[in-house]
């Protein structure tokens, strides 16, 4: 599943992702993170979980969230801690 491809960066900074990759993600928003190996591109969804360290995690809602969705996601995250 580790697919590698090349892409051109246009003068405006625009990069076109391959169609097969765009069809796999359920969003038109992405996160680009600078990592020691280069740039990491990840889909930006309604919410995502990430680990801060072995005992802590984070939940991010970059597109906003309803209180009921927040409660549901926190419950799901807490289940993973048991």
Enumerate how many helices there are, as a single number.
2
Low-confidence stretches: none
Q: What class would the helix/strand composition place it in?
A: alpha+beta
Main pleated-sheet profile: 2 strands, antiparallel
The residue-averaged pLDDT reads: 79
- Span between termini: 30 Å
Describe this structure in words.
The structure is a single chain. The chain has 82 residues and is α+β, with helices and mostly antiparallel strands. The chain has two domains: 1-44; 48-79, no CATH class. The protein contains two helices and four strands, in the order H-E-E-E-E-H. The strands form two sheets. The chain has a two-stranded antiparallel ribbon. A two-stranded antiparallel ribbon has the order 3-4. The model has no long low-confidence stretch (mean pLDDT 79).
Reconstruct the topology from this structure.
Blueprint: H1 19-24, E1 30-35, E2 38-43, E3 48-53, E4 56-60, H2 67-79
Antiparallel strand pairs: 1-2, 3-4
Features:
82 residues; alpha+beta; 2 domains; two-stranded antiparallel sheet; 2 helices; 4 strands; 23% helix
Summarize the structure.
The chain has 82 residues and is α+β, with helices and mostly antiparallel strands. The protein has helices at 19-24, 67-79; strands at residues 30-35, 38-43, 48-53, 56-60.
């Amino acid at each position: 599943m580790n697919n590698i491809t090349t892409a051109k960066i246009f003068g405006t900074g625009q990069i076109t992702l391959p169609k097969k990759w765009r069809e796999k993600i359920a969003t038109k928003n992405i996160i680009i993170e600078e990592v020691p190996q280069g740039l990491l591109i990840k889909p930006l969804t309604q919410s995502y979980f990430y680990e801060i360290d072995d005992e802590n995690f984070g939940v991010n809602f970059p597109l906003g969230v309803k209180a009921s969705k927040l409660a549901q996601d926190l419950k799901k995250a807490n289940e993973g801690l048991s």
